[in-house]
Amino acid sequence: MSGLQVSKVLNNNVIIAHHPQHDEVVVIGKGIGFNRKAGDEMPLSSVEKMFILTNEQEQEQYKQLVPHVEEELIEVINEGILYVKEHSELPVNEHIQIALTDHIAFAMRRQEQGLVIQNPFLYETREMYPEEFRMGEYMLELIHKKLGVELEPDEAGFIALHIHSALTNQHITQVKGNSHLIADLVSLVETSIAYHVPRNSLDYSRLVTHLRFAIERIRRGESVQENASLEKLLKQEYPQIYALACELIILMEERLKESVYAAEACYLTLHLQRLVQKKEQDD
């Protein structure tokens, strides 16, 4: 057999099938189950714009999820995920099918019940993952256009985290953890220098980007070049800001469970001092 053989039709958009390489799989695609029955064969070429779940655990989770989600919503989510695949250079982890379907279906149920959950990390997520955020906004537009449901704009941030998780093969808890950590670091900076950084400003974008790259370097264990003379100068010239940079590093070490190169304090001090100068200009 060189194609798929239908084992069971779950609904118009989801079937269980036998795959020549992966044995039983779950196949998801627009109208894939329409007028099909067990035993029907499908050429693999016909599933180009469909999704095949090959992991047994992912398959089982999706099978349990499907009966609780409207067919129209499954179709719209598939269209959104296809958009992500077509506009991403990285492969998309198949777990996105379960994660996004479950999240969006729950978000829609919450909205029906009048329960609105604000996204406290919306600005951080938009700055950290601009492409994924744009895709999240596209999905919200798609849901509104196809289903007439207007989800809260905050949902674009939640969806963006799931997309980033699928593109980088990071667990969603780690992706969320990075956003939470950056929000806490920004809060510590603002409290320490008594300055609220405008969320739509270039200064905010620079700060979040710097912190994001620092976290990524730490997770990779990437070394940062030491500069003893620069460190000595910064300690002398900007003792309070250097101390704040060290506080940020301690928080990163605690949350990431990784050691941070001391040189990171120098780069943070330079960045934070520019922020302090901006505050003084605004005062």
Automatic annotation (TrEMBL):
GO molecular function: RNA binding
Residue stretches making up the PRD domain: 68-173, 174-282
UniProt superkingdom: Bacteria
GO BP field: regulation of DNA-templated transcription
The keyword Endoplasmic reticulum is annotated on this UniProt entry: no
UniProtKB keywords: Repeat
UniProt KW Repeat keyword: yes
Protein name as annotated: Transcription antiterminator GlcT
Species lineage: Bacteria, Bacillati, Bacillota, Bacilli, Bacillales
